[in-house]
Amino acid sequence: MKKDIKALVDKGEMLPLMEEFYTIQGEGFHKGTAAYFIRVGGCDVGCHWCDVKESWNAELHPPTDIDTIVNNAAKYSKTIVVTGGEPLTWNMDPLTNALKSKGMQLHIETSGAYKLSGTWDWICLSPKKIKLPTEEVYEFAHELKVIIFNKDDFKFAEEQAAKVNKDCILYLQPEWSKREKMIPLLVDYVMENPKWKVSLQTHKYLNIP
C-alpha cells in the first residue's frame, strides 16, 4: 500500500471496503428491517467458525474513499449497518460523521476488541473469547449477541452479560454449522433464563445476503 493511501486509511478517510449491499437485517433486535450494509475488511480476532473469513486480510480489499462509500449508501437506505471483519480496527469517526451529515441511522456490529470510535445509534456487541471487548464498549452497547458454538459458551454469555449496561438487550445465537445441535439447548436455556432472547440468522433461512 502506498504511503499516502496508508496515511488516509490510518485516519479513517479511506477504508478497506470488502463489500456493500442493500438487504434485510437478519439478526438481533433489528431483524426483518431493510438496511444498507458496509462490510469493512480487516480482523485479527480470528474466530474459527467465522462465515466471512475472506474479510480478515485487509490487504485483499481496496482502500476506498469514504465519500464514495457514503454516496453509494445514500442511494438505498437511511439505516446503515457497518460490519466486518472488525470495523473498529479502523477509525470510524470520519465515516460516521459523513453518514450522519446525510441524516443516516447508524448501526455497528463489533466484537468490541478495539477502541470505540464513531457516532452510533445502535451498537451490537458480539464478544469473542479470543480477544475480549474493551471496558468502554460494555457501557454503550445496546445489544449483546453471544454466539453459541458449544455448551461452554453459555457460561461465557453470562460473564459478558454481567458487564454490559442494564438497558442492553441480551441475545443468544446458535452458530450456523451447529444450529441443529445447539438450538434445543439454547431454547431450554432461554426458557430457564428469560432475561435472554433467541437470535437466529434469518437471512440464511431466507437465502439472502
UniProtKB/TrEMBL annotation:
UniProt cross-references to InterPro entries, sorted A to Z: 7-CO-7-deazaguanine_synth-like, Aldolase_TIM, rSAM, rSAM_sf
GO annotation, biological process: tRNA queuosine(34) biosynthetic process
Enzyme nomenclature, EC number: 4.3.99.3
Free-text comment on the cofactor: Binds 1 S-adenosyl-L-methionine per subunit. Binds 1 [4Fe-4S] cluster. The cluster is coordinated with 3 cysteines and an exchangeable S-adenosyl-L-methionine.
Keywords: 4Fe-4S, Iron, Iron-sulfur, Lyase, Magnesium, Metal-binding, Queuosine biosynthesis, S-adenosyl-L-methionine
The organism's place on the tree of life at top rank: Bacteria
Known pathway: Purine metabolism; 7-cyano-7-deazaguanine biosynthesis
Catalytic activity: 6-carboxy-5,6,7,8-tetrahydropterin + H(+) = 7-carboxy-7-carbaguanine + NH4(+)
Residues binding substrate, per UniProt: 24-26, 39, 83, 209
Domain Radical SAM core: 30-209
Annotated positions binding S-adenosyl-L-methionine: 49-51, 85, 126-128
Names of required cofactors: S-adenosyl-L-methionine; Mg(2+); [4Fe-4S] cluster
Residue sites binding [4Fe-4S] cluster per the record: 43, 47, 50
Subunit and interaction comment: Homodimer.
UniProt record similarity statement: Belongs to the radical SAM superfamily. 7-carboxy-7-deazaguanine synthase family.
Protein name: 7-carboxy-7-deazaguanine synthase
Lineage, uppermost ranks: Bacteria, Pseudomonadati, Bacteroidota, Flavobacteriia, Flavobacteriales
GN (gene name): queE
